[in-house]
Design goal:
Elements: E1 5-12, H1 17-35, E2 40-48, E3 51-59, H2 74-89, E4 92-93, E5 96-97, E6 102-109, H3 112-118, E7 132-139, H4 148-166, E8 172-184, E9 190-202, H5 209-226, E10 236-239, H6 249-252, E11 255-256, H7 261-264, H8 285-302, E12 308-315, E13 324-328, H9 337-347, H10 352-359, E14 378-379, E15 382-383, H11 392-398
Parallel strand pairs: 3-6, 9-10
Antiparallel strand pairs: 1-8, 2-3, 2-11, 4-5, 7-12, 8-9, 12-13, 14-15
């Protein structure tokens, strides 16, 4: 590995306009899966000044029929879910308010041509919801086996959001971004945080004088609480470097579902297949296969078989069996990558249905994935199912 290199990752808060869109889309996924665990959902969200627009394709019992007629009360539930999500994020601003924003619902029935390829019928197993390539990654940089630059970026914004919601930092508004640059040594171990950027929307007046100083002191205190002290000995801080950040969220910049895929995954430390997660039911391998590859990579690293691991899967729409499986332990493996590739399909069924069954994905669990990353963290006190390390002993036995 290279010696003394710099690497940077960023995160965005739950109030960032793209993340507002992601959370709305996943709240709709949860709503529909709670009605029909086999529902098909592709929900895209646009947010801008005082406006939320939904578009996409859906199918499910008790939701919408093939002619596009909503089941009684469901259309109203959709709007209520959107407004509740915006309210929970914290938007009660003139330019974006959960109660007064305009709402458009343009969801319509799923294409019958997609359905015939995805649904199981006769001797045909359920096929993948689309073609594509998906990657999973894990490394020993952090206890949760995630890249440290991304882990710290997420944690800074999570703490700030918690303080905003609790009232501890009432001068904070929902929109925020962070960025952490670490210097690594030749063993891939972080040895210094050379630069940290935090831009946060704030209450009026917190861009000058004593109030600005209070904001800066608060942010530096959060960073000092979360990053090890030895990393912060010579750090360059950029806190609200533009000066003022009063206008933010969808009022300051339009948001769209699926525009923060690197924030959602590994912060640039691993490849990305290009497909977004939010707004999609788990028959879409963009989502479910990305989860299973993370699960497999994390278990490989947790088993001590490597200190870094990247896994790729590829699928064709309507075809159940993956087209390829690729494992790369980046020269850190204790066994050959080919041996791991041979074992994984014997431990986990990598068809779309097999993935959903193994991880229990046909449940309304997705809204809480849609901010601060889909990997390497707990939600509601527990890890997401793809973060379990219950495959460790089986891997050790199979590769002994």
């Amino acid at each position: 590995m290279r010696s003394n290199y710099l690497f940077t990752s960023e995160s965005v808060s739950e109030g960032h306009p793209d993340k507002v869109s992601d959370q709305i889309s996943d709240a709709i996924v949860d709503l529909f899966l709670s009605k029909d665990p086999e529902a098909r959902i592709a929900c895209e969200t646009l947010t801008t000044t005082q406006l939320v627009v939904l578009a996409g394709e859906i199918r499910g019992k008790g939701i919408m029929d093939e002619a596009g007629n909503w089941a009684p009360g469901v259309r109203e539930e959709v709007e209520a879910t959107v407004r509740r999500t915006v309210k929970e994020i914290g938007y009660e601003q003139d330019g974006f308010h959960w109660e007064t924003l305009r709402f458009e619902n343009n969801l319509h029935p799923q294409s019958a041509h997609i359905a015939q390829g995805v649904d199981a019928s006769g001797n045909k197993d359920e096929g993948a919801g689309d073609q594509g390539i998906m990657f999973g990654y894990a490394s020993t940089e952090t206890p949760d086996l995630m890249p440290a630059t991304l882990d710290y970026s997420h944690k800074i914004l999570q703490r700030m959001a918690a303080d905003r919601h609790s009232g501890l930092a009432p001068f904070l508004e929902p929109d925020a971004k962070s960025q952490v640059t670490l210097r690594y040594n030749g063993e891939g171990v972080p040895e210094a945080a050379t630069a940290i950027v935090v831009s946060t929307q704030h209450a009026k007046g917190y861009d000058k004088g004593d109030k600005e100083a209070e904001l800066h002191t608060y942010v530096k205190g959060v960073i000092a609480d979360l990053l090890p002290g030895h990393l912060l000995t010579d750090t360059e801080y950029h806190i609200n470097p533009t000066g003022s950040f009063e206008i933010g969220g969808p009022d300051g910049d339009a948001g769209l579902t699926g525009r923060k895929i690197i924030v959602d995954t590994y912060g640039g430390a691993a490849p990305h297949g290009g497909g977004a997660f939010s707004g999609k039911d788990p028959t879409k391998v963009d989502r479910s296969a990305a989860y299973i590859t993370r699960y497999l990579a994390k278990n490989i690293v947790a088993a001590g078989l490597a200190t870094r691991c990247t896994i790729q899967l590829a699928y064709a729409i309507g075809v159940s069996k993956p087209l390829s499986l690729y494992v790369d332990t980046h020269g850190t493996g204790t066994v050959g990558d080919e041996a791991i590739e041979a074992v994984l399909p014997t431990l986990v069924n990598l068809t779309p249905r097999g993935i959903r069954t193994h991880l229990g994905l046909n449940k309304p669990i997705y809204r809480k994935t849609a901010a601060y990353g889909h990997f390497g963290r707990k939600a509601d006190g527990d890890f997401f199912p793809w973060e379990r390390t219950d495959l460790v002993e089986k891997l050790k036995t199979a590769l002994a």
